Amino acid sequence: MFAELLERVAGALDAGGIRYMVVGGQAVLLHGEARLTKDVDVTLAAGLEHLEKVVSLARAAGLEPLVDPESFTRRTLVLPCQDRQTGLRVDFILSFSPYERQAIDRARLVTMGRTAVRFATAEDLVIHKMIAGRPRDVEDVKGVLRKNPGLDRDYVSEWLKRFEEVVGRPLASEFAAIAAGP
Predict the structure, then answer these.
(1) What residues form DSSP beta bridges with 64?
(2) For residue 1, is pLDDT > 90?
(3) DSSP structural state of residue 107
């Protein structure tokens, strides 16, 4: 069910020339340990100037926006949609930072059916999860670290240090503590 949805979303975005990466629970299933996830999160290499195109591509993939894109997405940079076939939710996250654009460039291609789908690397997934910082995200980071012992911890730490002031938490030291284990 998710694989077919990811194929449709990737196909529409590729056809529309919008670069992207799958993040969130679907990326955790690839890089970490199995867990329940009820949605798909996709970060786009597109800002608000591409909102109309993103809405059009979402509809082409069989998705309907759950909000008024003009008001909600312009305020939050998120376009929540629902798949007409399955009822599953897909959140498109518009990006604006050099980090997000770099992470999208680093994304890993994973073949699903006949489509190559772009997933965040394990390192970039950890960065996203550390910034979110919820208990579920911390557990996801632990799972990604267990499954990827060769993860580039220096890359993760460097980006987390850059985000500390914005987020208001000592992300790099939080990551170091998690990476050190119990």
Answers:
(1) 82
(2) no
(3) P
First to last CA, the chain: 36
Could you report the per-residue pLDDT of 13-54, keeping only the tens digit for each?
999 999 999 999 999 999 998 887 889 999 999 999 999 999
Question: Which spans in the chain are helix H?
Answer: 2-16, 24-31, 51-60, 74-76, 98-106, 122-132, 135-147, 153-167, 171-180
CA distance 55 to 58: 5
Distance (Å, whole) CA 99 – CA 103: 6
Number of C-beta neighbours around residue 65 at 10 A: 17
* Nearest-angstrom CA–CA distance, 130 and 58: 28
Answer whether 151's CB lies under 8 Å from 123's CB: yes
Q: What is the pLDDT of residues 124-176, one digit of tens each?
A: 999 999 999 999 999 999 999 999 999 999 999 999 999 999 999 999 999 99
Non-local CB neighbours of 58 within 8 Å, separated by 6+ positions:
12, 64, 65, 79, 81, 90, 92
The pLDDT, as a whole number, for residue 97 is: 87
